[in-house]
Structures are given as C-alpha cells and as structure tokens.
Amino acid sequence: VFNFSAGPAVLPEDVLREAADEMLDYKGCGMSVMEMSHRSGEFAQIIQTAEQDLRDLMGIPGNYRVLFMQGGGTAQFSAIPLNLLNGGVGDYIVSGSWSKKAAKEAARMGRARVIASSEDDGFNRIPDLENLHIDEDASYVYLCHNETITGTVYHELPETGDVPLVADISSSFLSEPIDVSRFGLLFGGVQKNIGPAGVAIVIVRDDLIPEKTPDGVPIILDYRTTADKGSLYNTPPCYTIYICGKVFKWLKAQGGIEAIGRRNHAKADALYGYLDKSDLFKTTVRKQDRSIMNVPFVTGDADLDAAFIEACRQAGIVNIKGHRSVGGMRASIYNAMPIEGVNALLDVMESFERSHG
Amino acid sequence: VFNFSAGPAVLPEDVLREAADEMLDYKGCGMSVMEMSHRSGEFAQIIQTAEQDLRDLMGIPGNYRVLFMQGGGTAQFSAIPLNLLNGGVGDYIVSGSWSKKAAKEAARMGRARVIASSEDDGFNRIPDLENLHIDEDASYVYLCHNETITGTVYHELPETGDVPLVADISSSFLSEPIDVSRFGLLFGGVQKNIGPAGVAIVIVRDDLIPEKTPDGVPIILDYRTTADKGSLYNTPPCYTIYICGKVFKWLKAQGGIEAIGRRNHAKADALYGYLDKSDLFKTTVRKQDRSIMNVPFVTGDADLDAAFIEACRQAGIVNIKGHRSVGGMRASIYNAMPIEGVNALLDVMESFERSHG
What we know:
2 copies of one chain form a homodimer.
Chain A: E1 2-3, H1 13-21, H2 41-58, E2 64-69, H3 72-84, E3 89-94, H4 97-109, E4 112-117, E5 138-144, E6 146-147, E7 152-153, E8 165-168, E9 185-189, E10 200-205, H5 223-228, H6 238-253, H7 256-277, E11 282-283, E12 294-298, H8 302-314, E13 317-318, E14 329-332, H9 339-356
Parallel strand pairs in A: 1-13, 3-4, 3-5, 5-8, 8-9
Antiparallel strand pairs in A: 2-10, 6-7, 9-10, 11-12, 12-14
Helix pairs in contact in A: 1-6, 2-6, 3-4, 7-9, 8-9
C-alpha cells in the first residue's frame, strides 16, 4: 500500500528491513537495541553517529547543539518559552493550528504575543511578513515552518534583526536544504520525515542555552542539563534514536538533502500541476505558500470527497483523508514516499475525474 | 548472551521475534506500526488492548486511570508535584538515588520534605517506617518501591492514613502482585520490565487528577489533559506502546503476575542463597529489604571484582558490573531473565570462588 499519513508516516522500506534483521542481535552483540543500556559503548556509538550524520546532512554549524528530547514537538511548545523567555516576551507568527497551539502554551508558560496571523483566512496562507512589529523585549520570534494540517510552508523567512528566530520544522525536517544559521533554534518531532514517534530533535545555538537551569523548569525540559549530559541525563528513547540514525544513513545514500529536495519538489510539482489544471479537484492554499510535504485538496462536495477516498482505498492508497478542519483530502508526501506513490494517486485522481468530473 | 543490565534490559525473545516478523506489515495492513497514524483504528486497538491487559495483570480498580506518558520516570518526578501538590507539601521517604532525585525535583517544583532517609547507611536498607511524621498539609507521601541502584524493595508499606501514597515502581513493575488500592498513584518507566525506553506508565486514582489543568503545568506533564484525551493529546510513542502490549500478552501467557512472581522469587532466592553461604561474595543490603529484581554484590576487592566481571564476560554474561556508587557487581534479574541465566551466573560464581576464594 501507499501510506499518505500526515504522521506517524511512511518510513523507508530498507530501514524497516534492516531493523527487522537486527531485532534480536545488533551487530553480533547478542542483544536487541531495545535491551541495551543507554550507557553502553554500542549505544554511545548509535547516538553519536546519528548526531554526526544529522549535522552532515543539514550542515549544522559547530556553535549549535543537537538535543534528543522526549515529549514530541508539543513538549517544545513549553520548553522554548521556559528556556528562552528569560523575562522577555515570545513573539509568535501564527500560520496554522500548530503555531497557534505553540503561542497558547507559551502564554501559559510566561508571556507571548501574536505579531501576525492568517487565521482570518482559514490559514490558507503564510501571514504577511512585511512590517512585522517585533517587541522591544522580544526574546525570540517563533514560526511553524510547515503547517501540516493546512499545508503551508515559508519559502521566505521574516527578517528579525538580532532577535533569534525559532522554528518548528516537524513536517519539513530534512525535506530540502535549510540555512540553519538563519535560526536561533529549530526543532521537530521525528514522526514525519525521520522515525517512529517518541523523539523531538532540538538544534539550538549554544549562546541561547541558559547558563544554568532556570528556576521551576521541569528537568526533562531543561536545555542546559540535556546539553551538558549529551541527551543522556535520563534514559532516552534509545530504539527510536536508533531508527532515526538509520534514516539519516538512508538519506545520505539517497544523495543527501539536495537530492532529496529535488525529488520532493518533483513529487509536489506533479501533484500541484495536476491540481492546477483539474476541473474537479482544487488546492486550498495560496500558490506561493504551498507546502511540498502536505498537499490538501478538495472537490468542494463532501460526498464526492468520500467517494474519492474510497476509490483511493481500493487502489491501495491509504490515509488520504484530510484533517477535519480542512475537509477533503490531504496527501502527505514525505521523503520516504516514492514517486510511484504519487503517480498511483494521480492515476486515481485522473480516472475519478473522468468518471465524476 | 545473558544480559543482566539494570535497564534498558532484557526483553522476552518471543516478543522480539514477533516484532521482527511484523516490522514491515502489521496484521496485513501493509504498514509497520512505526508508520501508523496514532488516530488510526489499528493503533486505537493496540493502546486499548495494552491498557486492558495491564489492568487485568495488576487488577487495577475501575476508579484508577492508566496514562501512557513520555519522558521516563524522571518526567514524573516533576509531574507528580505539579499535579498533586495543590498548595501542600510532598513528604518523601528517601531510600536511594531515585527517591532522592525525586525529592530534589519536587522541591524545585513546589514544596517537599524528606520525612525519612537511609542515606547515612549508604541506602543499604529501607528507612524505618515506624513513627513517620507526616506533615499536616502533606499532599502525598512518596517512596521508590524498588531502588534499582542499591537493590532495596519495600516488603511492607508505610501507613499514611488518608494521605495518598505515591510510588515509583520502575524496577518492580509487574514483578510480583501489588495491591494497587493501597496507592494513590503508581508510576514507572517501562524500560526495565516492560518494553523499550520511551514510555512511563502512570496509574492514578481518578480523584487525584486535578479537575482542571493547574496553571503553569507544561501540557505534556498535565494529568487532566492526558486522561481526558486517552493518552493521545499529542502523538504518543506508538511503537514503544505496541511492544509494551506484546510484553503484557507474554506475561499473561506465562500465567500472570502470581506465576511470574513465584519465578522471580525462585531466581532471587537462588542468588541470595548462594551469596549468604559464600565466603567470597557478599550482598550489600539488609536481609529484610532485599530486592528480587536488582541484586548488588561485592567481593570487597576491586581487582577481584574486575576479574570476576571478565570471567562473566567470557561466559556470555554481560552488563553485570555494579553501579559506580556501590561498586562490585549487580545482577538485574527482571521478568524476562530466564532461570537459566541465573544458573549460568551461579556457575561462574562457584567456579570463580573455587579458584579465587
């Protein structure tokens, strides 16, 4: 089947095969990675290699730390204000459900202000980034790089001067090249482009990590301790990190992020190209803000949408139903979705349009 | 090899085999469990079955909720005071490193007091439980049921009257029957007796869950939201929960907790029996407080300890080295350690004592 789930999502078959082969005996050590002490030499090798491969893939500068944390992206909605506010305010650009949730949680953790929003347009676009009013005491400007539900992405970034830019890249992680040095902090849950749910990766410029743990920050959300302990203050989700590491190796074997980015653009272009000429299906997002990872589309008729989803299911295309807030369909075409999956979807769309158009 | 790691730790081979077999295709759905939406029917079945099997195994009363949370036991060190203090104080019985850490974190999150401690005796025993002075405004009394590092367990529980008893059962989870109704809250990281690291299970009496989320509690540590959303507020560590569920099925197939408890006592009795008559090896724990899961022992001579650990390694016995704070050796004999593993260890001990005693 072709799995268009928005996350947890499709993983490379080669990675799953390797994991199955190594399940009872990792490289002759007689144990599963699930059974290994996180203080063992074998696991040290796994986590250090994963970090180095991620650094290579993204070109992460040496003055950024890579943290493997628990609780998903949602835990970072709290951790970011707890670690970074330092008495200031968090300025939020709200482009969809996820940045809206992050802003709400930051307000609970300290002080947050929405400085731009596209909510009045149903989040069908990135908010206007010209003339942003950034607070004088802003500790950071926050955005969600790719909104998974409504399918928008920032093709340009806002200018924030000396104020660090913080971005949730959960659903665009490793999908195409990104200039890490433009950001103070990048983070994402791994369960879309990288691995099974259970890890969030935080890439943070080292001067933004508080020198000492701020009062009242729960220890597992504390960047200082996590950085000082190499993400091993307490037992990390070792097996999840191991699978992420395999995906990093797979990405390198695919030619790295430039090559993957070209393939992702080709997949997205094929879908949007069809949608732009279709009389039946329409995209829901402003053209210049379209995500290359999540492609929502609708017929405008709930019964037709349901019939189309059923036609997909019969063709082995699953998890194509849109989020309830948008309706219709959503094709999540992460790194591990092959072009064959997109072509299979296009075949069903064309055939459905012929019979129902 | 026989893996005596204190955690992450040995898992049942049958469970690992099944997981490997299902890695690419879970029950004919064409996907790995790693790739499934946490909102899918398949995953709903997995998490609901896991919860029900755990309820059956432990006899969890209907007025207790079962929460699957992230961040390990350490996250609960923060979550417990954040959710339960409600302006009162947490009374801590400190019997080892883990309860000491929990008390320290609770003091950071609110107010905590150590009401008994065995630290002056190097945590070689459970503190005296007679004449505990429980604070008038105590919100709970906290203990760590089984201290993994020093190898103690509570064979009797303190009397706390109307004050709820809260216990960390990370390393004694499902090791023998426990009367859940004696506790207000039980929790544990799963990476010792239940599954791969990445999930903490919280079993909490429903009247202790705050009616609404307390101010300032990070959302992923919030019991109210987690309970209301069936542990699916955000994406949970689906694959880890799936493996936990398989271990619950395996435990049921072994005859349940009574049967496993008998086997665990037999394994522990074999080890302690030898240690009690050995002239070379000694236990480090007061007799009435000995853990049946973690058995530390020493020769009293660091060079002999090292030679013994090397003799073990040659016999395929790994991760037997003790924690640095105790030294010597530690045999963690969790549910999935077969009696054959304990016998193999005893063989090496006997042969080593003959040649070095």
